[in-house]
Each structure stands twice: as C-alpha cells, then as structure tokens.
Amino acid sequence: MTEVELSETLAAARARLAAALRDAGRDEHAAQLLAVSKTKPASMIREAYRHGQRDFGENYLQEALHKQAELADLTDIVWHFIGPLQSNKTRFVAECFDWVHSIDRKKIAQRLSEQRPAHLPALNVCLQVNVSGEASKSGATFEQLDALASAVVDMPRLALRGLMAIPAPATTLAEQRMPLARLRQALETLREHYPQAPLDTLSMGMSDDLEAAVAEGATLVRLGTAIFGARQ
Ligand SMILES: *Cc1c(COP(=O)(O)O)cnc(C)c1O
Questions:
Q1: Is the CB of 166 within 6 Å of ligand 1?
Q2: Where is the PTM N6-(pyridoxal phosphate)lysine found along the chain (predicted)?
C-alpha cells in the first residue's frame, strides 16, 4: 500500500466510523479507532501516525517489540496488545504496552499487575469474552466473567476498563449484533457490581462488523484490513 492509499483508507475508516455513530444516534466522539497493525511494517504505522492516528493494536509480542523500537521517537503512540497472551510473555507486555485487551484468566492478570513497572500508570485492561462459545477461541465464558472481574478489580497495577470480543463471522446485521448486545449487557452488569472500576470500554467491531458493533455501543473499534489492506 502506498502512502497516498494509506491516507485514503484511514480517512475512509474515520468516515465510516462517523457515519455508524451518526446512524446509531451516538456522539461523534463516542467511539475511537484502534488501528490494528499486526504483520504490517513500522513504516505504515509511522505514516498513519503522520495522519493523526495514535492508537495501534498488535497481536504478536516479538513483532510488536521490534516495531516499538523503530518508532521510539513517536512517544505519544498508545500501544494495545490484542492477541492471545501466554504467561511467559507477560513481562514485556506489562513493560511496553498501555492496554491489554485479551485477559481471559486470573493468572495472566495477576502476572501483569505484579510486573507492571512502578513508574508507569496502571495498565488498562479489558477482559476478553468468548461470545460465540467457539471451542477453539480464547476468552472467558460469560459465566466466568464476574469471578474474573472481581479478581482483576483488586489488582493494584491494573485498571479494569471493559470487555473485548471477537465474534464468530455472521452474515446479517442482526446476527452480528446478537453476541455484541450480550457483551454490552455483560458490561452493564459489571458496572453495577464494581462501581469502583473505570469500566468504560467496549472493544468490539472489526473491518467486517463495525456498524453492528457501533450500533451496540462499541467505544473502541479495532480495524486492520480496512486501514492497512489485506494481510498475507
Ligand atoms: C486482526 C485483528 C483485528 C483486525 O481485524 P480486521 O478484520 O483486519 O479489521 C481486530 N481484533 C483482533 C483481536 C485481531 O486479532
């Protein structure tokens, strides 16, 4: 993708998000764009940054650390770790990211809290929910969610910001909305149970279901393909 194309896809993604918010009767600033840059070079992140994008999502730790080193001069990038996280990788994530969207068990959260450096603010975290109940997918079940949230709320170096989901592909808007509506309801329940937590984030909506997610209250939409083009 050339620089011109990237400025165009980014503008189109912003317009698409703005239109979805308008259609949903929501404030134009009610949801933000998270640019998912996995498998894409640091030069493309730099270009998106030049066009005003600040939040970037990465899935693979080694790849992300290389890009972060190349982009160290862009000090106000907000880095989001959105991929599956194994416990032997938590230290670098705790040290090098601002957000983690993929918390699905207590042990990972515990390690991130213990390993978050004292000079950094609390790590923003979302709990990932396996909304479609797919056996192959990561994420806590809806049934496990309250116990997990209850543990994370008490972890001193984590800020429990909300929920994240990657639903199974669906074809119609109504089908897409159903699991996302459940995620929104689950967040509302957690907000009632844990009023002390900053639970303000619904991380949902990707290139294929952005409109459904925004209609169901997404606050952070994670767009990869729509901004950076197809991945290999
Ligand atoms: C890759 C990825 C995305 C972006 O998906 P697109 O369909 O390319 O927009 C969003 N969220 C997560 C967790 C991902 O792994």
A1: yes
A2: 38
